[in-house]
Amino acid sequence: MPLLEVPRLYRNRCGVFCFRLRSGAIDARVSLRTKCPLTAHMIVQRLNTAVDAAKGQRMTSKNPSLSELGIDLKALRRYEIDLKNGVIKTDGTTTDHQNLMDAVDRIGMVPDGVPWPLTSKAKAEQAASAVSQPTPPHAPEPARPKASTHTLDAVAKLWLAERARKNAVRTVYAKSRHFEDCAKHVDRWMDIDLVDKRTIVNWKNALLAGGQVAKTADNKLMSIHDMFEYAIANGLYSASPLNPVKGVFILDKAQRKAKTDPYQPFTEEDIAKLFEPEAYKAGMSEPDFYWGPLLGLFTGMRISEATAIRCKDVKTAAGGVPHIFVPKSKTTAGVRNVPIHDALIELGFLDFVAAQAATGHDRIFPARLLINDSYSKRLSEQMKHWLVVRGVKRADDHKSFHSFRVNVITMLTDEGANTAQIMKIVGHKSAGSDDVHLGYVRELPKLAEVVNRLKWPIDIAGLKP
Asked: What is the dihedral of CA 63, 68, 73, 79, to 10 degrees?
């Protein structure tokens, strides 16, 4: 069934509709507890009216928070629509009933081919059409469309369920969002065998017409290509042995690589600006804001690794070397022990971790929520803001938290560390190799000496919290 384009209406990967309201830095989503499009449209129409009214009263373009709306969400969830049996429950007002009828007029047929009773306006239009185009008395019965065996939506659910067993959560989420984008242009309830190359090309053209850059459009096409590879391999797509997405990509592998902007390292001047003691302590005062960038600068850890540290992962080895165990990373090489730089110890990192453990916290940054399989969302947003505030981020560069990894790798190389040592510290894998099998690389005392070669132009004493 085609969906109406309604602001702030969101459908999660389980098919449940949600109301999504962004207010400042807060992105709130409230489940509407329904998979019925009509029910969802009615509820969100009420919520959107309340949002617009609140914005008008405050004379601002910014959205209010959910708490400011003063809406009884439980009351809104009392709506009940049984399309097959023609049952509808609203708040009993004429306005709500008319809103539903308007939505039905625009949507038309409901799932499973069950028509909703037409409004008086739709009946009149239907009658006029019947008069202007009478059916011949002996006209042959029109051929029925092919009965659906495997809908696009059903195959997508099977595909995502299998991919969840081998891909990271964030990857599966990205694939699901790419399918939802496709489903805006291709009927998700159609038989998958009816999808051909022309269907995919039309979707690609719609992406480009909507302003999508070539690389982003290709990323979405690759997800759908993967879905059809799954469908062909599992006998769910029989229209052709060829993947309909094959050959539709905009960029080839070389062009894609050329389009990828490498992360740029921070200059010494950048680092001095970012970690100027008084400004840093004032602007990056929350625990993950304060410790996250310092961990990146002195260990080369990824932002997702630094923000997911558990208290029990901060350990001291038998040789007396304090280190952080990374149990989960982007790659298998990322699972490692990272020595803690002397500067972090001087700043009180070990004391901070001990205090968090003493209060019963599992993670060292317990206030952050898991979003898309990562605890890094707020720090990532704050880092972007901080780079701009300190005059480090410019429109034509590619600098972010990940730049700390580039700085660490570069300085360790300049300080004489060998490739195996650097890879073991930052969790990289060399091209074409399975792992690093040099015994001494696994010795934490040796790696601690290497890590402590990192020297940055910042005032450690002034940075102490």
From this structure: -60
